[in-house]
Amino acid sequence: MKKIIFLILCIISVNTFAQQKDTLAYYTDLDLKPVSKQKAKITFKLFQNNPTTWTFLKYNSKNVIELKETYSDSLLTIKHGQYVVYRSGKPSLKGLYFNNLKHGNYISYDEFGKV
């Protein structure tokens, strides 16, 4: 549900974003209500890597990464590429998506970074 709300906001901003070729940042409280950067509990970032790849990032209130997803469209509907879930800023799960389907094996890491 939270990602759907973010997607809607991205759709609204996609025209501006596409023209800027820049990182789009969206700051929210825990209920996903927009707040200033200083009051943010969650930060979402979206940027275009190349003409066919978009990266979505999620950070916590301490600006520590929690999630990285790669998409093949600006509307973030087709996962395609790297997928990483982080725990305390370190990868805890890594895998790939190909045309919105999990591809290959996923690697899970413990809190010490061991597989």
Order of strands across the biggest sheet?
Answer: 1-2-3-4-5-6-7
**Helical element count?**
1
Question: If you average the pLDDT, what whole number results?
Answer: 86
**SSE order:** HEEEEEEE
Ends distance: 31 Å
Helix amount: 10-25%
Show unreliable segments. 11-20
Given the helix and strand composition, which structural class is it?
A: alpha+beta
- Main beta sheet: 7 strands, antiparallel
Question: What's the overall geometry?
Answer: flat
Total DSSP E strands: 7
Q: What value does the Rg take, in angstroms?
A: 14 Å
Strand content: over 45%
Question: What report would you give on this structure?
Answer:
This protein is α+β, with helices and mostly antiparallel strands and 115 residues long. Helices cover 17% and strands 47% of the residues. It is built from 1 helix and 7 strands. It has a 7-stranded antiparallel β-sheet with strand order 1-2-3-4-5-6-7, covered by helices on one side. A hairpin with a 2-residue loop joins strand 5 (79-87) and strand 6. The longest helix has 19 residues, at 2-20.
Comma- or semicolon-separated keywords:
115 residues, alpha+beta, 7-stranded antiparallel beta sheet, 7 strands, 47% strand
